[in-house]
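User: Sequence in, structure out. Go.
Assistant: Echoing your sequence, followed by the structure tokens.
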Amino acid sequence: MFVIIYIHMLMKSIAQVGVTVLKDRYFFEIWRVFMNRTRLRQLTLTAICIALGVVLPVLFHSIPRSGQIFLPMHLPVLLAGLLAGPGWGMVAGILTPLISTWITGMPPIGPILFAMLFELAAYGLVNAFIFSAGTGYGLQAWMTSSFVTGLPGIALQLVFVPLLYMVLAKAKLTPSRQLADKQTA
């Protein structure tokens, strides 16, 4: 359905321009006209981001555990929300895991797929609202708050969490210790 609507809009735009795609010298003129039309531009960017959201996980999963670390399906959805807007970001967040499951089998059907559907839809929607709101919260502020401002907290967590785990492990309060103790008893 999504592809049929896209092709219909594309053919309608070509007919309005009055040139054919077969002539190479007109390609850039057609591209410029397409990109000036906001709705078609948003649809095209969303489709590109969805395609990236299907291809990137395949590439990342070729290296063991890198897909779970870098979350490659999230990046194109966030990009779709930023470039195309909140509604299109949410559409990308819903369609990307569905199409990826259909084509590649990742994420598997079940709790992981449904969790990713809601998670990515929220990412595409909320991320676009944060950056499109006239609050002055832009990309530079996000980068600063996420990385520069967060570095002391990250360093504290890297030191504190392992120490806390070691203390809890010595007190035999960690789940793995409790299970191991029950099995030996």
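User: And one key feature?
Assistant: The chain has two domains: 2-138, 150-185.
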